[in-house]
Amino acid sequence: MAPVPFSPIKIGQIDDVQELRKARPATIPERFVRDIAERPFVAKPSMHIPVIDLSKLIEGDLEQFHTELSKLSTSCEEWGFFQVINHGIDKDLLQNIEKVATEFFMLPLEEKQRYPMAPGTVQGYGQAFVFSENQKLDWCNMLALGVEPHFIRNPKLWPTNPANFSETLEMYSANIRGLCKNLLKFIAMSLHLKDNVFNEMFGVAVQAVRMNYYPPCSRPDLVLGLSPHSDGSALTVLQQAAGSSIGLQILKDDTWIPVQPVPNALVINIGDTLEVLTNGKYRSVEHRAVTHKYKDRLSIVTFYAPSYEIDLGPLPQLVDENRPCMYKNYNHGEYSKHYVTNKLQGKKTLEFAKIQHKLSC
């Protein structure tokens, strides 16, 4: 069951942040200025999210394996985020996807607008999750594309400029897909489940990519690059381009913590779907992006989720008297529809799946 169309607000040239940056307005347009309570402030710099060495899980000795698996469990349970190193994806491929994404965003506006995020879709160039003329906009331009399975693709929205964009994205996405399958295997093992439980359950997994470009902003204290939200996916894989400003922040213990990039690492976060499947043991976490006065930022985000046809709910092995059933059973396609037809607002979309009283699943 694929998500049904909806009607977001069309974003025009006046709201394109790269064009605004070029125009150098005397003040930030009101459409981007956040209410005082939403504005970014100096985040706590002293904490670092966990780093998982995937090579120790794949080819390490028994002691290394169990140590790293324990770190993975703690990362998912206490943070909902971690960075993964030695993930097996070639550095040249990581550089190539950054290169074609940057080249696309540096094209003239009229060229990028050949791939518009039209009403009724969540693919193309523009801004997603905008449903009201009064809604505050993020200081970000996006290119979002469905990748797998092929029926979710809109080939007309895959840029032909730069010429190697599609070829690079295909190769990159295949590698990220393999990484997600590996991570889900080890996440299952960290829960004392069969290693193939998630990969078999997901069927032909849905995979989408979103490239985000955040130009410098003369008043980064007034705007947000991306509104606070959790992801509706099972896993999200984030690549932060080399040399970009530090923009990603996660909410931990009511404090926004900046994620310091680790060279050649990928940032992984738990999505709403895994929170439901693990009955809240592993939680999705609110995160946001902030801007910088002088530096731009590019991120490439892959969302990995079950097939739309799959019905989901807490796994029975993770429900007991100490952790009663927290979420109802639902169709993943219905949840995906719910997610993309609501603006980004913390973890509010997950209320779709919550139940208000104890049930046996």
Q: What layout of secondary structure does this protein have?
A:
Elements: H1 17-23, E1 51-53, H2 54-58, H3 62-79, E2 81-85, H4 91-105, H5 109-112, E3 124-126, E4 141-148, H6 165-190, H7 197-201, E5 206-214, E6 226-229, E7 235-240, E8 248-252, E9 255-258, E10 266-270, H8 272-277, E11 287-289, E12 297-305, E13 311-312, E14 325-327, E15 330-331, H9 332-340, E16 354-359
Helix pairs in contact: 3-6, 4-6
What does this structure look like?
Helix content is 26%, strand content 21%. It has 361 residues and is α+β, with helices and mostly antiparallel strands. The chain has one domain: Sandwich (Jelly Rolls), CATH 2.60.120. An 8-stranded mixed sheet has the order 1-2-10-7-12-5-4-3. Helix 3 packs across helix 6 (165-190) and helix 4 (91-105) packs across helix 6. The chain starts with 16 loop residues before the first helix and ends with a strand. Pfam families: 2OG-FeII_Oxy, DIOX_N. Belongs to the iron/ascorbate-dependent oxidoreductase family.
Task: Identify the CATH homologous superfamily.
Answer: B-lactam Antibiotic, Isopenicillin N Synthase, Chain
* Element pattern in H and E: HEHHEHHEEHHEEEEEEHEEEEEHE
Proportion of helical residues = 25-40%
Going by helix content, strand content and strand pairing, the class is alpha+beta
* Physical arrangement of strands within the biggest beta sheet: 1-2-10-7-12-5-4-3
**Uncertain runs with pLDDT below 50, 5 residues or more?**
1-11
The CATH class is Mainly Beta
Largest sheet: 8 strands, mixed
Number of E strands: 16
Examine the secondary-structure arrangement and name the CATH architecture.
Answer: Sandwich
Number of domains: 1
**What global shape is seen?**
globular
Q: Termini distance?
A: 23 Å
Number of helical segments with 4 or more residues:
9
CATH topology: Jelly Rolls
Question: What fraction strand?
Answer: 15-25%
Radius of gyration: 20 Å
The chain-level mean pLDDT equals: 87
